Structures are given as C-alpha cells and as structure tokens.
Amino acid sequence: MSKDGINSKDFLIGTLIGGIIGATTALFLAPKSGKELRDDLGSQAVALRDKTDKMTADAKEKGTQYVSIAKDKTSNITQLVADQSGQIMNKVKDLRDRSKSDKTDSSTSMQDMREEAMQAADETKDQVLQTKEDVKDELKDAQKQAEQLNR
User: Fold this and answer.
1) Alpha-carbon distance values, 61 to 52, 55, 109, 122, 145 (Å)
2) Rounded to 5 degrees, what are φ and ψ at 119?
3) Total domains in the fold of the chain
4) Burial of residue 119 (number of CB atoms within 10 Å: 0-12, 13-18, 19+)
5) Which residues contact 149 (CB under 8 A, 6 or more apart)?
6) Sign of CA dihedral 40, 46, 50, 51
7) DSSP string covering 7-68, please?
C-alpha cells in the first residue's frame, strides 16, 4: 500500500478498465458507418475463431502424439519387465527342481547348489538393476520426445 491508499493491484485494474472504455469509445466514435464497423467486428471475430480452431487442432494433435509416445514406451517397459521376470522365475524353478532331485546327494553337492543359487541370485540382481536402468532410459527417451513435440 502506498501513502495515498492505492496499491498496485488497484492501479492495474483501473488501467485495464480505462483501456477497455477507451477502446470501446474509439470504436464507436470512429469515422465509419455502423455497417462498416459491424463488418470489421465480424471479420475480426471470424479471424479469432479461425485462430482458436487452429490452436485447438494443434493441441489435439500434440495430445495424440503424447498418447502414442506414452503407449509405445509403456509397452516397451512392460515387455522388458515381463521378459526379466520370466527369466528370474525360470531360474528359481530350475533351482527348486534341482534341489528336490539332489536331496539325496552328499553335502558337497548341497554346497555346490548353494553356490549356484547365490550366483543365480547375483545374476538376478544384476538383471533387475539392468531392467531398472533400461526403464530409466526409456523414460528419458520419452521425455526427450515430449520436449521435441513442444517445440
């Protein structure tokens, strides 16, 4: 608030209202006939409508592009995760089957199986980390494509 009790918001509102009143007065006091003025206003309204239609069409097109990019990336990520989880499940099933068949073997065989299980767990961990990196890369790629669409 300034010393006179008028803040900047009130000043801006007053300026805006004054501008609108001035523009309206200028239109009505212009040296054109009513028909010419109506024709000018009509042509400006048509031009505004055309611009609005073009902007709407552009927005719909970009939205469609975003949706297609998102679907592509989602399907890629889903396929990647499904493949990785299938591999992990196959390794777990293989180890479980081997442990059932090898229960009668000696403790040395059990030690070997334990080491194989640990190795498989490490490989699975590596695959999960790789999948995580692949997902991050896919998301970065999708973001880049979205940014390119915005330009």
Assistant:
1) 14, 10, 63, 46, 14
2) -65, -40
3) 1
4) exposed
5) 62, 65, 66, 69
6) positive
7) -HHHHHHHHHHHHHHHHHHHHHHSSS-HHHHHHHHHHHHHHHHHHHHHHHHHHHHHHHHHHH
Sign (positive or negative) of CA dihedral 120, 121, 124, 125: negative
* Per-residue pLDDT tens over the stretch 11-39: 888 899 999 998 888 877 777 777 887 88
Please give the share of the chain, as a percent, with pLDDT higher than 90. 7
Residues 6 or more apart whose Cβ sits within 8 Å of residue 1: 7
How many other CB atoms sit within 10 Å of the CB of residue 151? 4
50 CB neighbour count, 10 Å cutoff: 10
- Region for residue 5 given its phi and psi (left: phi exceeds 0; alpha: psi -120 to 50; beta: otherwise): left
Tell me the chain's radius of gyration from C-alpha atoms: 35
Identity of the amino acid at 120: A
In a domain, 52, yes or no: no
* Token pair recorded at residue 68: 């297609």
Residue 23 counted as domain residue: no
Which structural domain, as residue segments, surrounds residue 66? 57-150
